[in-house]
Every structure is written in structure tokens, then in C-alpha cells.
Amino acid sequence: MRQGALLAAALAALVAACEGRELSVFDVPAMVGGSSSQAGAAGAGDPGGGAGGSGSNGASNDVAGSATAGSVAVASGGGGTSSALPQGGGAGGVPPGMMMPQPCQTDDDCQGWICDKPGCDATDGFCKPYPPFCDPTPRPVCGCDGVTYWNDCIRLQARARLAASEQCFDTACTCEVGSDCKVPGATCGHLLPPNAMCGHAMGACWVLPSECDPAADPKRWHECKPADGATPQCVDTCTAIKAEHSYAELHRGDPCP
What we know:
Elements: H1 2-18, E1 24-28, E2 38-42, E3 71-75, E4 82-86, E5 103-104, E6 114-116, E7 125-128, E8 141-143, E9 148-149, H2 152-157, E10 162-164, E11 174-175, E12 186-189, E13 191-192, E14 203-207, E15 221-223, E16 234-235, H3 237-243, E17 247-249
Parallel strand pairs: 9-14, 13-17
Antiparallel strand pairs: 1-2, 3-4, 5-7, 6-7, 8-9, 8-10, 11-14, 12-14, 15-16, 15-17
């Protein structure tokens, strides 16, 4: 009887000691990139505010719950919040595709890229990747060298400065043949406007794609003086420029002669 009474008293004391306390049981998911998991408990008096505890703000700090594969979970100390940053990102955790443009003054500042400047007199610019391939779609731009480039991608390939987002007119480098242009790969185009009389005209320097794509250009031109009395050809703009002799633009809707 005495032993039973002592056991009952001990149980009563234990119950009294636990009254008012809150017991939390939580699981910590496996850490990203690892294979271990942890489990534990923390009472209301835990000052660290750790995962599952009711510290300074009582919030649960589930670190790995919002992280995904290829990310690193980062928990704020004592704040009970978490975030996921991509691995292999740029400075400050920013992905490479979202990094701020690198300022430059010369191509040497860009480690193999191009220092592209916003005008002919600009001293500073931003690094741009060198384009290995370019779309054949005609969107002419004028370079500071007076050469018209088929599109801006081809201008970047030639490492030319941008003067205007259109064909060169007043500043155009004139020519009779491509070698007059003093630019590698340039061609001398002799193109006449629709209302001009078909004949010889001074040409203008162009840099074109390596191969013309007639389907990429809706304009059509006809030869002014076909060789040996042959039938005048009707061609796209790129082909007309590469021929390096006079072509007149067809009026819209006019058939090829």
C-alpha cells in the first residue's frame, strides 16, 4: 500500500510540472543536396527561435520546404523565414541571364565580347556577345563607317558602331565596286528608287549575309542593262546588291519584265 501511495504521488507531481507547458514535435526535411533528416522538439522557452520553436516571433522556420533541386535554401536568423537562391548564379545570386550589363570602353574590356556604344561619338558602352549566326531578315542599320548593314546582328559581327537604325543616306559611303568601301566583305549596291529612270548610278556600300534568302525580303528589283541583251532578271534586294550593277525597284504590284 505504501509503495502504491508513493507511485501515485510521483505521478501527480509529474502532471503538475507539465501543466502550462506546450510540447512541439516537428520534422526537418532532408537538406538540399544531402540525405540526412532530423527530428526534435522545442519548448516555449527556447530563446533561439529555431525551427518549430516559439522564440522571438513564434514562426515556424521550415528551411527546406520551399527549396527545389538545384537551389540552396537560406534561412534568416531568428526571423522564421526562408528563401531559395539558384546555384551557379552570378554575383549576389543573380542568374547569369539577369546580370547587369558590363560597362566598357574598348573590346578588350569585354573578354571576347563586343563593346557596343550608343553613338559614333560615344566613349562608353556595354558588352554584348559576339553573334556567331544572324537572321537573314532585312532590317538595315547604318554604321558609323557609312556602310549599311543588312541588320543589326551583321553590324555586331563586323564590330561596327551604330549611327542610325536605318539605311545610310546622307552619310553613306559611295562606291563603284565593293573594294571602294574599305570594309572587309562589303559590296557596292547600285539600287535606284521606283520613280528613277533606269540607268547607271553611283553605288552605296553594304555588308550582306553570306547567302541571300529571297523569301525573307518582299521587295523585287529588275536589271537596268542586262548583259548581252538577255531578259532582265527580277530579284530580291540582297541579290540585286551583290550583282554590283544597276537595279530599279519595281512599283508595288508591277509584274517582273
